[in-house]
# Entry
Amino acid sequence: MCSTSAGWGLVEPFYPIMFFLPRYAMAIAVALWLGLGSAVFASTGEDIKQLKALLRSMGTSVVNKKCRDRNLWGFYELNPDRITICINGKNVDLDEYWETLAHESTHVMQGCTGGNVIDDSRIARVYRELRAINKTSFRDVKGYATSQRRDEIEARWMELQLPSYVLELLRKTCFDYIK
# Structure
């Protein structure tokens, strides 16, 4: 016999829980269980086109180029307001491309706000989520200067969000810059 926890729809033992979790919660649970470090929600070429179009409408260009550092996926330059996605002759994986574009778009948002994108009241949750979903990415942030760590945590967390959320947050955060 299974018992339900008050109001949450959680059922014990574990195996019946699959039938009660919302669709995305189940995807996150499976990704965590498998230890996946890539995006939980796959992106499409259409998501990438939409994000690039929104960035262009703000005056931010997106270029693909070969970068000298093979470990570099991309970077954002405030002046000349450009995101560079490093291609380096590798096959373009849409999920990796999306993750890099979402990451660098977060730095654009940080430029729009002149600071943080994620409210202080939510940042502890963001740290926990990133650490749970992508331990390697979380550890890599320690290599940044202390003053840059929060920016990187926000950007790395944003890589793992639904494309619709990234687009919505960019519109909301950089509303004054959209032409």
Observations:
- Residues 3-34 form one domain.
- The chain has seven helices and five strands.
